[in-house]
Specification:
This protein is of the alpha+beta class and about 240 residues long. It has helices at about 15-25, 45-60, 105-110, 140-145, 150-160, 170-185; strands spanning about 70-75, 80-85, 90, 95-100, 115-120, 125-135, 195-200, 205-210, 215-220, 235-240. Strands 1, 2, 3, 4, 5, 6, 7, 8, 9 and 10 form a ten-stranded antiparallel β-sheet that branches. Strand 5 and strand 6 (about 125-135) form a beta hairpin. Helix 5 crosses helix 6.
Length: about 240
């Protein structure tokens, strides 16, 4: 073990120790960098432009994996579900991601094509929330995106079976090794259940943390009369933290 490495816990802490550990954690410890300023009066008129600016800022500030996001869906039973997925794009159509149609989230989106996304960028104490209906992405576009990624992405898509009950770790390794070999042998191989989705935002909220808890929350709400128009005028409003 290196001198500065923390020891790995060997047993679960007691409830008292766990609560104490929770309270020891610091919030937005960004060191000398401090928190970035955010004046909502100077924010652009559309949320996509601000998202691109904040995303670039998070990446420049060293935020690990700024393209990861929480995807929340609900199934036919109306119960919520959430998981971490990867953002594939954010453009005039909306926020893009992909999953297997046979997965749990794929089934939920088929039953209720509406979702919420949440990004959290600790490096700058910023968060972004997106909510809206989910539309299918063109299959050719999804395929092109998949095949532009590393071999591992294609192998995982070929293996499929996401959310199914797994018999053993050995079964997982065998299936993925076979899928990896196929992806290397045939880089153009298709993954029939891999599908792209686009969250078309009804509203997008930007949260800027403040050391004195005077957090700034700016929400963009699409005009209901122009819900299907990507160029619709957005209404901006401040929210209490």
């Amino acid at each position: 073990m290196r001198e500065n490495d923390a020891p790995t816990p060997t047993e679960s802490p007691s409830p008292f120790a766990f609560r104490a550990l929770l309270r020891e954690q610091r919030v937005w410890d960004t060191g000398d960098a401090g928190l970035p300023p955010f004046d909502p009066a100077q924010a652009p008129g559309d949320p996509l432009t601000l998202f691109h600016l904040w995303f670039a800022g998070a990446a420049a500030a060293g935020q690990p994996e700024p393209h990861t996001m929480t995807l929340a869906t609900a199934g036919a039973d109306g119960l919520p579900d959430a998981r971490t997925v990867m953002l594939h794009d954010a453009d005039d159509r909306g926020w893009h991601f992909a999953t297997h149609t046979t997965s749990r989230k794929g089934s939920q989106l088929a039953a209720r094509p509406y979702a919420a996304l949440a990004f959290y960028w600790h490096a700058q104490a910023r968060a972004v929330r997106v909510r809206g209906p989910v539309h299918p992405a063109p299959p050719a576009e999804t395929s092109a995106d998949l095949h532009a990624r590393p071999t591992g992405a294609l192998a995982a898509a070929i293996a499929g079976r996401q959310s199914e009950v797994l018999g053993s770790i050995e079964e997982l390794r065998s299936t993925y090794e076979s899928a990896w070999r196929r992806a290397e042998r045939d880089p153009a191989a298709q993954a029939p259940t891999w599908a792209g989705h686009v969250v078309v935002p009804d509203e997008v909220e930007f949260f800027q943390g403040d050391a004195h808890r005077q957090h700034v929350r700016l929400r963009y709400v699409r005009d209901a009369a122009d819900a299907a128009d990507p160029g619709a005028v957005w209404r901006r409003e401040l929210l209490w933290p």
